[in-house]
Write a structure and sequence with these properties.
By secondary structure, the chain is mainly alpha-helical. The chain has helices spanning about 10-30, 30-35, 45-80, 95-100, 110. The protein has five helices and no strands.
Length: about 110
């Protein structure tokens, strides 16, 4: 049974919207994660380092987006499996406020510590 204190349709809608937003961000930032190719005869060493640092930051942002997308997919699966809101460790209900803050959370506050 899904969490009795939550509007599951609203939770599903929020998760789907967030998934859509993250996927759009991922697509729009693809070029900033591509391999840095610079003409070393016309670009200085510091410019190359700046470009490589920007690429590394974009790659880390993408890694975080992909982690968030996996958590969202897991939350959507728990809704479909009719166990959304149950702590994966102790089986008790996760506080409704905690789930409203982050619907992809897996554990109650006690087990998360």
């Amino acid at each position: 049974m899904n969490h009795p204190e939550l509007d599951i349709d609203e939770m599903r809608s929020r998760l789907l919207e967030e998934r859509e937003r993250l996927q759009a961000e991922s697509e729009s930032s693809q070029s900033s994660r591509d391999t840095v190719v610079l003409d070393q005869t016309s670009v200085g060493r510091l410019s190359r380092m700046d470009a490589m640092q920007a690429q590394a930051m974009a790659q880390e942002e993408e890694r975080r987006r992909q982690n968030a997308l996996r958590r969202i997919q897991g939350a959507l699966q728990r809704i479909d499996d009719d166990c959304f809101g149950e702590c994966i460790e102790c089986g008790e209900w996760i506080a409704a406020k905690r789930l409203e803050w982050d619907p992809s959370v897996l554990k109650c506050i006690d087990c998360a510590q």
